[in-house]
Design a protein that fits this description.
CATH architecture of the largest domain: Alpha-Beta Complex
CATH superfamily of the largest domain: 2-enoyl-CoA Hydratase, Chain A, domain 1
Strand content: 5-15%
Bound molecules: 1,4-dihydronicotinamide adenine dinucleotide
Radius of gyration: 28 Å
Structural class: alpha/beta
Number of domains: 3
CATH topology of the largest domain: 2-enoyl-CoA Hydratase, Chain A, domain 1
Distance between the termini: 37 Å
Strand order of the largest sheet: 12-11-10-13-14-15-16-17
Shape: globular
């Protein structure tokens, strides 16, 4: 078979122009490396005086091919290709547009000169995949931009703009006209001025003081806690300061390989692919429905969630009509949106101009009639089914046909909400997480009657508002909150059996959770669960009696952070400290249940809480509430602070082995009937399969 041509080459005047044409992202797959190297080698012998390397399509090379990390490297590897560039006898100019990432940026660093279009961005996102730039990037970048900037770029994994790149010497020229013409003019200029073959590895390193790295390591210790690759990146940059380039490269290679085979990188790469898969709605694939056009958004309720959701849509460029019951509550909602932007400005993430532009798109009202022309309306009123049904009946009466009606409910039944309208096909759940303008997860809840094109529309909108959408079917609590219940039940049981809030939180935080469950309860407000339980049936209430401790705290006015007391006491800075009164309450609850308190170790706490998540996840998967196990992983990592480097609860279970998990679960169920191992766990354990290779039966 003749390989597809992904590299085009032609001479324009004295300059050889190499165009990479490998859509959509021009990644450095084997076919690109091979043809590119052949082209560069051949160009050494033609009449060209210099070479320009650019990409067609929407971006410069956006990285290496991640799929290749799991297999043996095939020649020419990145390193072989880069050696070809470095040994070129002719100047090679990299001309960037779009996003030059990872291996793409490493390639540009091997070229003799770099130019970029003003809107282009550059970065090394490897750390997000548990890796490091492994083809010389850790040695070249600090030589160009300095140690501090190089560390910041590689440890945060963020992109920088062309202007920042110019300021820090990462590129040599910002070119305003189209590529490749602009790059040709720049290259001609280099030739006219007889510029040398300039290679980054020959630039002298400016090493910082000896204490720099110790201080830097301390500074970032908290944010990189539990992660493997950041410390390896720092080691590499330290080498760049102390060793020769060749030795630095050798060590970088060794560390890169350690990262590639680390379980962490496996988990992070799993999450990367999980995000791609989540957008695929398997049961709606053929024929793919055409999304509806959304140009204006209405939000009902300007409380915690409504104001966050408004911020989200405003930031993405949508005009938003925010509706509240009364003017003064509306004004409070607007202030919250303003504060959201001001916090962003204080952190340097948002500009004053952006805030102004977004606030200008905000329309406020107390009159439902103003929602009539909105394409998408999201309800975020009190968590009460009757109130929500009334809101939807009202929307049905006034909204234009084809408008999408969404609810941000955490627990209520979307089908019942949809039934309050004459257009259930236009209704679905859009479950945001708090704070809605920051948290990346969006559960998209498909009702029994939700039309496929609605679902497709919301998946598209999710991308525009920079969310990770995960489709869930209707059930109490959908994916995330449903799994959270047994997790919290185990927390309460551990408390009753002998643990204290600080021990549970510390154990779970040590395990990697962003926040322990007692602290999460205090942050969200213990009254939320209390109110939710109030609405349960008698039978459900009986099952939920294990939560009596939390309910007790609520009845004492200890709602969590908002009342400066919950499981903990809080000072003005929200710093938590334990409270003997809570200890006494827990002990008396234990007594009430006739439980003899015992010492529980961290290992048991971690195992019980994590197993609770896995077990409910297995129920959810078995009932087809989630499409695939990786969707559940996304929910937990991006909505509930599950450590990304463990890949999510289902991925974690697969790594441990389902057989082992099931055996452990059976053992727990023999001690406590509250444990009901999911049928799917049994099925997978007995057939030696994993969550990852389980497919829905329909
Ligand atoms: P909130 O109490 O902060 O805000 C609700 C707002 O809705 C209030 O400002 C109220 O004046 C307004 N409202 C009530 N009835 C209304 C009506 N008929 N028309 C217009 N406005 C009305 O509540 P929050 O926390 O923002 O929750 C809203 C929804 O979002 C609930 O369904 C909740 O379960 C859900 N949710 C809450 C999360 C959280 O962490 N707070 C997370 C995810 C979902």
């Amino acid at each position: 078979m003749i390989p597809v041509r992904v590299i085009n080459y032609k001479c324009i005047g004295k300059i050889g122009v190499i165009a990479i044409d490998h859509p959509p992202l021009n990644v450095l797959a084997h076919v690109v490396r091979k043809q590119l190297l052949d082209t560069i080698n051949a160009a050494q012998h033609d009449n060209s005086a210099a070479l320009v390397l650019y990409c067609t399509g929407k971006t410069f090379i956006a990285g290496a091919d991640i799929n290749e990390f799991d297999s043996e490297p095939v020649e020419p590897t990145l390193r072989t290709l880069f050696a070809g560039i470095i040994h070129s006898k002719k100047i090679i100019v990299a001309a960037m547009h779009g996003t030059a990432l990872g291996g793409g940026l490493e390639l540009a660093l091997c070229c003799h000169y770099r130019c970029a279009q003003p809107a282009s961005k550059m970065g090394f996102p490897e750390v997000k995949l548990g890796l490091l730039p492994g083809a010389g990037g850790t040695q070249r970048l600090p030589r160009l931009v300095g140690v501090q900037m190089a560390l910041d770029m590689m440890l945060k994994g963020h992109t920088i703009t062309a202007a920042q790149a110019m300021q820090h010497n990462l590129i040599d020229r910002i070119v305003k006209e189209d590529l490749p013409q602009a790059a040709l003019a720049y290259t001609q200029e280099l030739l006219d001025h007889c510029q040398p073959l300039r290679l980054v590895h020959n630039i002298e390193m400016h090493s910082p003081s000896t204490s720099f790295f110790t201080t830097y390591r301390k500074k970032i210790a908290r944010q990189t806690q539990g992660y493997f690759s950041p410390s390896k990146i720092i080691d590499c940059v330290e080498d760049a300061c102390t060793l020769s380039f060749a030795e630095g490269i050798k060590n970088e290679r060794k560390r890169f390989m350690q990262c590639v085979v680390s379980p962490q990188s496996g988990a992070l790469r799993h999450l990367f692919f999980a995000q791609r898969h989540a957008r695929k709605i398997s049961h709606l694939l053929s024929p793919p429905p055409t999304p509806r056009s959304i140009t204006s958004v209405g939000i009902i309720g300007g409380g915690t969630m409504g104001s966050g959701i408004s911020t989200c849509f405003l930031s993405a460029g949508f005009p938003v009509t925010l509706l509240e019951l009364e003017q003064d509550i509306l004004a409070r909602g607007v202030r919250t949106i303003q504060t959201n932007y001001e916090r962003g400005i204080a952190k340097g993430k948002v500009t004053e101009a952006h805030k102004k532009e977004c606030m200008q798109r905000l329309i406020t009202t107390t009159d439902y009639a103003h929602l009539a022309e909105c394409d998408l309306i999201i309800e975020a009123v009190f968590e009460n089914l009757d109130i929500k049904k009334k809101v939807f009946t009202r929307l049905d009466a006034l909204c234009k046909p084809d408008a999408i009606l969404a609810s941000n409910t955490s627990y209520q039944n979307i089908d019942q909400i949809a039934a309050a309208t004459r257009r259930p096909q236009d209704v679905l759940g859009m479950h945001f997480f708090s704070p809605a303008h920051i948290m990346q997860l969006l559960e998209v809840v498909q009702g029994k009657e939700t039309a496929p094109d609605i679902l497709a529309t919301i998946m598209t909108i999710a991308k525009k508002i920079k969310k990770i959408p995960v489709v869930a079917q209707v059930c109490f609590g959908f994916i995330g909150n449903r799994m959270f219940e047994p997790y919290l039940a185990q927390m309460h049981l551990c408390l009753l059996e002998g643990a204290l809030p600080e021990q549970i939180d510390q154990a779970m935080e040590k395990w990697g959770m962003a926040m322990g469950p007692c602290a999460v309860g205090d942050l969200a407000g213990l009254d939320i669960g209390y109110k939710m339980r109030e609405g349960l049936s008698a039978e459900q209430k009986n099952e939920a009696r294990i939560f009596s401790l939390s309910d007790h705290l609520v009845s004492m006015g200890r709602l969590g952070r908002k009342s400066q007391a919950g499981f903990y006491l809080y000072d003005a800075q929200n710093k938590r400290r334990s409270d003997p009164e809570v200890t006494r309450l827990i002990e008396s609850e234990s007594e009430k249940y006739g439980m003899k308190r015992r010492s529980i170790n961290d290992d048991e706490i971690q195992r019980r809480l994590v197993y609770a998540l896995i077990n409910e996840g297995a129920y959810i998967l078995g009932e087809n509430i989630a499409q695939r196990s990786s969707d559940i992983d996304l929910v937990y990592v991006y909505g509930y602070g599950f450590p990304p480097y463990r890949g999510g609860p289902m991925y974690y279970a697969d790594q441990i082995g389902i057989k082992k998990i099931y055996a452990g679960m059976k053992e727990l169920s023999e001690q406590d009937p509250l444990w009901r191992p999911a049928p799917l766990l049994k099925e997978l354990a007995e057939s030696n399969r994993s969550f990852a290779n389980y497919r829905r039966s329909d």
